[in-house]
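Worked example

This section walks through a single chain of length 143. The input is the sequence exactly as stored; nothing has been trimmed or padded.
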Amino acid sequence: MDEELEPVGKLISQLYRQNQKTLAKELLPYGIGGGGQYNFLKLVLIRPGITQDQMTNEAKYDKATTARAVKHLEEAGYIERRPDPKDRRSSLLYPTAKALEFAPLLQSILTEISRSLTAGLTQEETNLLAALLRKISSPPPNH
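Given that input, the structure is written out below as tokens.
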């Protein structure tokens, strides 16, 4: 009798939770919490002047999660809001000097966590895993 395979979704969920716990522990000393706050900070660093709506779409989080993360990052001194000259109802988000100074450390933390996740894999296996995860996380093309 064939052994039943564990559902892929369950494995991904377990890996996600393990990764989130590690990230929370590593980023806590810098005032960055859960809820993907580091993702939002990275977006602001990569795309200064991004709006919350753009962040929601790019990070694939809901609006409430984006709003909470932006509020926290603003209160922690990592991002600042500036009025959007094209739309008074909207704000543009920019990294602060604190965020710019922290960016290299954030990247090294994320890189190290990623390395630890794939420590038992060869480079070829790591590349294949990333390619497969990208493939299953992309929405199917419209027919």
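What to look for: The chain has a mean pLDDT of 90.
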